[in-house]
Write a structure and sequence with these properties.
- The structure is a single chain.
- The chain is α/β, with parallel strands linked by helices and about 350 residues long.
- The chain has 2 domains: about 200 residues, Isopropylmalate Dehydrogenase (3-Layer(aba) Sandwich); about 140 residues, Isopropylmalate Dehydrogenase, CATH 3.40.718.
- The protein is about 40% helix and about 25% strand.
- The strands form 2 sheets. The protein has a 10-stranded mixed β-sheet, with helices on both faces. It has a two-stranded antiparallel ribbon with strand order 6-7.
- α6 links the parallel β8 and β9.
- α1 packs across α10, α1 runs parallel beside α11 and α5 packs across α6.
- The chain starts with a strand and ends with a helix.
- The mean pLDDT is about 95.
- The protein binds 3-isopropylmalic acid (IPM) and magnesium ion.
Amino acid sequence: MKSYRIAAIGGDGIGPEVIAAGLEALEACARRDGGFRFEVKEFDWGSDHYKRHGVLMPAGGVDELRGFDAIYFGAVGAPDVPDHVTLWGLRLAICQGLDQYANVRPTRILPGITGPLRNVSAKELDWIIVRENSEGEYAGQGGRSHKGLPEEVATEVSIFTRAGVARIMRFAFALASSRPRKLLTVVTKSNAQRHGMVLWDEIAAEVATEFPDVTTDKMLVDAMTMRMVLKPETLDTIVATNLHADILSDLAAALAGSLGIAPTANLNPEGKYPSMFEPIHGSAFDIVGEGIANPIGTFWTGVMMLDHLGEPRAAERLMRAIERVTADASHHTPDLGGKATTRQVTDAVIAALEGDNA
Ligand code: IPM
Ligand code: MG
């Protein structure tokens, strides 16, 4: 039987709660499928580890992860540790260290969930945002001089490389080409940012010639926010820079009804290194320990992991179970306006999986 080695990093806040729920659902999937199993190793990395040892993960942590087939990640960020420390100490260190350059964020309105847009059906809002995940505005280049003095200066340098842009464009075009509408919107800001963003546009146009079946259009990021709200049905696959896609994906998640259901995959598409799968919502310290975190984002993230591991049938089954559960409002957690607990939603998804005879 095939066995997949999974590194589980619950991290901070509600991260460990949703990852525990996600692992239960994945185990149920494997039982239902019968053709594969998971071998899970849990890591206690995150802000508590930082408070005890001064680092979010031990030296050599990223190397240790290389031996796994996938990483299942909860959230990182704590109220009493600066956000840039937690982020660069764990999540970005893993993404950059394992060259997970393609961040993929599907957005759909799931059955039973009402988004804030009037008259927009699930069919009209079905997007995948591809986020460049290795450079751009998150490259980490820059510095501060004359700290604390009136002449203090700080730089935050965006990096756009031909290789980095070309590989994310190829990934986005291939993904768009695999979807029924074959439609790719390239988000840019080349009117104001005349170097990196112009290179971005040029490479998009070059790569487009390799994918004659894909229709593309170009959108300035500011105008894109309006189009997402006013004409959601005109969008399908979207590619954007690290920061632009960060912002647009929060808007997308809100338009689909809740940040609590949005999944993401940090992919190393070539499979040279393991990819990392995480819900978008973050650590949500306001509800830690209450048992009401919405595990749907983590389950959907599990669907992406199963797909990536090469288990599309199990992935489809888990997605069907998720949709059956969200369709019933008695299974909605408080972020969706309901009263259900993490436990109840998890049990409902597992029951739906076990009852799925397809
Ligand atoms: C996301 C998050 C992170 C990001 C935060 C936690 C730094 O917002 O995954 O979208 O900006 O990348
Ligand atoms: Mg974000």
